[in-house]
Amino acid sequence: MGNDIDIYTTHFGLSHRPFNLVPDPDFLFWGPAHRRAFSILEYGILTKAPITLLTGEVGAGKTTLLRYLLRVIDKDVRIGLVSNAHGRPDQLLRWVLHALDVPDTADLSYVDLFSKLQQYIIAEYAAGRRVVLIFDEAQNLGRDALEELRMLTNINSEKDELLQLILVGQPELRDIIRRPDMIQFAQRVAAGFHIGPMSETVVRDYIAHRLTVAGGPPDLFTPQACATIHSHTGGVPRLVNQLCDLSLVYAFTAEASAVTEEVVNDVIKDGVFFGGGLVSGEPLRVINPVSRSSIVQ
What we know:
5 strands, alpha/beta
């Protein structure tokens, strides 16, 4: 069928695949939840909050938001992005130094690594820059690593926070932080937001937005098709992308001019949409533990 651009893009008048699974800030959809989530990220950075928390289900669009943040962040903020960090406290410090492009050697002790990081942060502060560390998939860090991060926020001056943390992860990250033995950490969290699933109306707007960005007609998917997609994805953006992409392939092979409810149902019945491990044909039920922003005092 040629390269992936030619699978269906020419047929539907698209310049790009609108539902690519790779996080792309060019396609960022500013739905209500993502707009509020980004506001909380900005709030944390602008108010110099010690720790800001962002959670959401797998595929909720957290990484896309982070990539957009990295694109628009002020030049007086030095960003270090740490993904899937794990291991002992000294290994965590090596992850941090690597994210900040600070060289280290294998023979350095924990004290040496901490001193190296502290010197870097103080030097950046003296140059008029703040350091923000972003930890993606932070639910994998564990209690000891999170406690180590809390200790890092003690690197400050008398009035200003020299180091800020943004923790991004799945819903269980909130459960970890809310444990009784994590109260000191929780008290450092200035603001947090959980990205819940999209409603049926928002899913329809989301699909239209991505089609428009890709140069196509916003009504390529019928309202009934959008409703069926919401039912089988629970409003999770990544799952919506998967099902929409497959539906476009099916509509193309049928030489259809639009994606209808029947086309989406054919994708479901054929079992080609796994939906994160769902049994084919069963609508997805997503539990949204937190649907609004929360401020931790």
